[in-house]
Specification:
Largest sheet: 5 strands, mixed
Number of domains: 2
Order of helices and strands: HEEHHEHHEEHHHH
CATH topology of the largest domain: Nucleotidyltransferase, domain 5
Strand content: 5-15%
Number of strands: 5
Number of helices: 9
Distance between the termini: 43 Å
CATH superfamily of the largest domain: Ribonuclease H-like superfamily/Ribonuclease H
Strand order of the largest sheet: 3-2-1-4-5
CATH class of the largest domain: Alpha Beta
Shape: elongated
CATH architecture of the largest domain: 2-Layer Sandwich
Helix content: 40-55%
Amino acid sequence: MAPRVKFDPALLPERPNLSFENALWERGVRLVAGIDEAGRGALAGPVAVGAVILPNDLPDLMTRLSGIRDSKVMQPNERKRWATEVKAFALACGLGLATPEEIDQLGIAPATRLAAARALDSLKMTSEHLLVDYITLPNVDLPQTSLTKGDARSLSIAAASVLAKTARDALLIELAQTYPGYGFARNKGYGTLAHRQAIRELGPCTVHRRSFAPVAEFDSLFPPENSQA
C-alpha cells in the first residue's frame, strides 16, 4: 500500500481529474476502482460506500463526466444527474452499506471499512488497484493509494462519492416515512439542531446510532418500547 503523502490544499485542482488513474493505466493497471463513503458523521442511518471503475480507453471521459465534483459541494439534482452518467460510462459500479447496529458494534471506522469491502464485492469485476479517499482498507488484499481530499482530486473517487451520497440520501428519504418526526428527508440523518431537538423529544429510533454521543445522551431516558420501531 502506497503511503499517504501530506497534501497542501492550495494544490487542489479546479476539479477532480484522471492524473492518478492515468499513472496507473500507463503502468498497465487497467481496473482502477475509486472508493468513497457517505454518512460517516451522521447520527442515523447506515454508512454507505461507493466503488467505481472507470474505462481507460475513452479519451473524452473527462468531458463526459465534466460536472462531477466532491458530492458534498453538489446540489441534489446535480448528484442525481451525474450518478446516472457515472452508471452509463463506468465499467462497474458497486455500493456497500453498514447498518447502524454494525456501526454501534464495530465503531464507525471498522464499519466504514466493512461497507467498502461490500462495495468491492458487489462490483462485477475484480479491481487491480484502489484509489481511496483518505481511509485505508487493511483487510482488502489489493494495492491501494489513500488520498487526502481524494474526492476533489480523483475523478474515480469523486464518482464513487456521488454514487454513495445519492444512494444514501434516497434511503434516508424512505426512512423518513417509517420514522416521522426526525426530519430524515431534510437532514439525511446528520445532527442538525432540529434533529437533535427531535431526539430529545422523541428519543432515538431504531435507525439511530446509539453509540454516538448526541444520541447516547438521551438513549437511557427512553425505554426500548418508547423508541419508534
